[in-house]
Amino acid sequence: MLDFIIPLIGRFHPLIVHLPIGFILMALLLMYYPKKDKLPILPAIEIALLWSSITAVLACISGFLLYTSEGHAFETVQNHLILGLVTALICLLLFFQLKKSKNLNSRKIHFNSVILVISLMLTGHLGGNLTHGEAYLIEVLPESIQSALGYSGYQEFEPIALEENRWEDALFYEDIIQPILNQNCRSCHNPKNTKGGLLLTSKETILKGGKNGPVISEASWEEGQLYHRMTLPLDHEDHMPPKEKRQPLMEELELVKYWLASGASFEKSLVMAGVTKEMVAPFFIKSAASIYPKVELPIVDINKLSIIREKGFFIEPMNEGSSLLKVSCINFTDFNEANLEWLKEIKQHIVFLDLSRTKINDQVFESLKDFENLTILKLNGTQISGNGLDLLQQCKHLNQLHLTETEVNLDNLKLLNKHPKLEKVFAYKTPAATENEHKVDLTFEVMFGNFELPILPTDSITF
Amino acid sequence: MKNINHLLAELEQQRLEKQTRRHFLMDCVSKVGGLALAPLLFSCGLGSSKEKINGLNLSERDLNPLAPLPPPFLPKSKSIIYLHMAGAPSQLELFDYKPELVKYNNQPCPESLLEGRKFAFIRGVPNLMGPQANFSQHGESGAWVSDFLPHFSKVADEVAFLKAVHTDQFNHGPAQLFMQTGSPRLGRPSLGSWVTYGLGTENQNLPGFVVLTSGGKTPDAGKSVWGSGFLPSVYQGVQCRSKGDPVLYLEDPKGISRNLKRSIISSINQVNSEEFDHYGDPEILARINQYEMAYRMQIEVPEVMNINDEPDYIHSLYGTDPGKESFANNCLLARKLVEKGVRFVQLYDWGWDSHGTDKANAIDMGFRNKCKEIDRPMSALLLDLKQRGLLEDTLVIWGGEFGRTPMQENREGKTMGFKGRDHHVDAFSMWMAGGGVKKGTSYGLTDDFGFSGIEGRVSVHDIHATILHLMGFDHETFTHEFQGRPFRLTDVEGEIIKEILA
């Protein structure tokens, strides 16, 4: 019934440890108080040392109880524990020595006080490492100093990562459950820090459970501690992970629940366990940042596309089921800027527009500025001179601009400076390409081309 | 009347008596065949947007098989230029630098390498032959390129090398088929057919899959390397002539005006559409579309296929020779075709089979001249695509059907007069460049002799999977129903080579 007493005393350890620290420092400060005649303060020093010793012993006892009740491995706490004992013993030793000799200037006393300071600091530091983690002090240092100290990169565990087109092959435990446990539980349930005697790092240790028995119930999955503790209200003191730690996502909880409910198999694949694509969809690896904008648009009606297609455009979704469109005038060379009217209705959807070799002129920018999601624009081989290119500043997603074989010059290109997304401009065979000699500062990369392959002596040899 | 009925019954009786077991079996065969035929005939429909014409469910695809289709996934490339060196160039003189092999020059090949191996011509124990070219590293990526390709070494930063490709066919025909169709046996669609089948083509006035050949001969495997296999034949490669008119009969015959031709086609199409009204066969609609396309091709093909009007600096960049059959002309044409929205351009250059049986196929003579023939054009192609912004969404692939042995060929066990290498399947080099490919990389490593890949070995199926991936397909789900089962380009294998993806 009084089971709680031991862990309770244990948990007072972080409080109690500060008492000896204070008393010891007090005693040492008095001992080395810069005053010739220290005899009048000797009783005070003795009292300080006495209380240092008492609280140090209490700290040792509470610390030991904490260690036994919280499931730390001995290897992790041993240095702290031994040094704590050493500190307490030296305290006692110093107290008795002083009581006996009443002489503050003896060599023994000096020696012991130095040892006491060192062991006190080391013990305190190791204790701090246990509660805050070894990286606590180093984390805030600049990276260069961190790496100089040899602390580059702590072990971090990868979140769940599934490939969208082969998620069916993924294993439920290995690819889903263990990553969830790594993310949410491992910091307190690993071989170094085994709270509650529970290790959540492998099949064997999960099945073994903690001090209070297995965490997965064979009788009813809902009663297993693993699920029970994770789903308790956040304010409940048994809730896991503890309130102040990272909490699992709803999707992660759902998967853990499904895994337990489906028999907690360590071998089954997702499909075998009956997991649907929707359940794991949030964990698919997002393909490398696409240059196309991420916008939620309704899919354009196929009949509407057919009607526009009949005018002569090449038009199709970027990929199956995409609401983004690719439009080209490859078979519609009579196209001019007035014809852009026909695309007005779907202009938000167009991310790729190729108007190369059509009959457009600089007026076209007036209409194009409203194509808000335009990402790649091709105007190769047209009459445009680039007046009005500044209007394209309004196409916030524009990433590539193809102006090969046009009349664009460098001053026009400068109008595009500081565009937020523009990366590449192709300006081969333009006046801009011939002006190239004086370098101008542009915030994007320009391809002027004019590549040559010099004639080599070997070109004319026949072997 | 009764008599007549009696006679008829007797006739029926006689007919049935003649029905032997053989007839029964034959009926079974033909009807089971019919059952099998049904899915074959109805497996061409692919389109998703079915509209009703004449009470039939037809998609835009049925009317125009080359109508563009969006890929299943966001693609990195929209066109492909495949440069196939027919005959298989030696990787050991081009990209796979093996300094160790120099030390073992002219020494007998270790038995351990030969154990259990078969070669096309090598018999007994051949001697090893060191690289016949001088290698150095080029560009920021430090790519190893030999002095046989001095121009290409300047653009080596643009490409991703695959140094440990392997195949399982050591004869040209099957190996070419394997490389181009995913199977060493006849009957499978080529890579270009798969791609045009899956994506259609953007420019409706040009074929979607164009084949250009050079080197005096076409590949040993014949036209099947650009065939459509079991896919509808409209997806096969259109081979353009390498000399003279690339496509015949596009010019208007003397005395016949374009208008007259137009009205002839219109009349034929009218007759055809009446025929369609009567029978409702979608093939007739496809036929009408073909006539229309042939007419439209008259407008665009002569312009695209004419390289005479290109400016001089382009001719000197590529080293073209208008009017003759050359790899350089084909490279320039490939750029022009891709610029005009052609989906797949396949170049074959013949004459890479360097056995060392005579001067023309000696590694240090004929082979070196072949290298010279392709060096400038293929480098120019990369640069020209790059400066026009086409390399952003065009995939360029270079390779042969297999590699060459690190041993000198000893045909029939004799020492040969010239330096040559035999066919080798275990390790050879290829490169890719363009849309979605990681520039300036090299993946795969061969052993000290360049005999086998020891790291990053990739198969022909892996290469196909990667190409399809870049075009927006999942090679495992991109299938065609044939003979009652779905077929893939990559059969049941293939892993995407992620290491060379950008």
What does this structure look like?
The complex is a heterodimer of chains A (463) and B (502). Chain A has 463 residues and is mostly helical. Chain A folds into 3 domains: 144 residues; 120 residues, no CATH class; 146 residues, Leucine-rich repeat, LRR (right-handed beta-alpha superhelix) (Alpha-Beta Horseshoe). Chain A has 16 helices and 7 strands. In chain A, strands 1-2-3-4-5-6-7 form a 7-stranded mixed β-sheet, covered by helices on one side. Chain B has 2 domains: 40 residues, no CATH class; 372 residues, Alkaline Phosphatase, subunit A. Helices cover 33% and strands 18% of the residues of chain B. Chain B contains 13 helices and 19 strands. The longest helix of chain B is centred in the middle third of the chain and has 23 residues.
Q: Which SSEs are present, and which pair or pack?
A:
The complex is a heterodimer of chains A (463) and B (502).
Chain A: H1 5-11, H2 13-16, H3 18-31, H4 42-70, H5 74-101, H6 107-132, H7 143-148, H8 172-184, H9 203-208, H10 225-231, H11 250-261, H12 277-280, H13 302-310, E1 314-317, E2 325-328, E3 350-354, H14 364-368, E4 376-378, E5 400-402, H15 410-414, E6 424-426, H16 431-434, E7 445-447
Parallel strand pairs in A: 2-3, 3-4, 4-5, 5-6, 6-7
Antiparallel strand pairs in A: 1-2
Helix pairs in contact in A: 1-4, 3-4, 3-6, 4-5, 5-6, 8-11
Chain B: H1 2-18, H2 21-41, E1 50-53, E2 56-59, H3 60-63, E3 79-86, H4 99-103, H5 111-114, E4 135-138, E5 143-146, E6 159-166, H6 172-181, H7 191-199, E7 209-214, E8 238-239, H8 258-279, H9 282-304, H10 312-318, H11 327-339, E9 344-350, H12 366-387, E10 394-399, E11 403-408, E12 421-424, E13 428-434, E14 441-443, E15 445-446, E16 453-455, E17 458-459, H13 460-470, E18 479-482, E19 485-488
Parallel strand pairs in B: 3-9, 3-10, 6-14, 6-17, 7-8, 7-9
Antiparallel strand pairs in B: 1-2, 4-5, 6-13, 10-13, 11-12, 15-16, 18-19
Helix pairs in contact in B: 8-9, 11-12
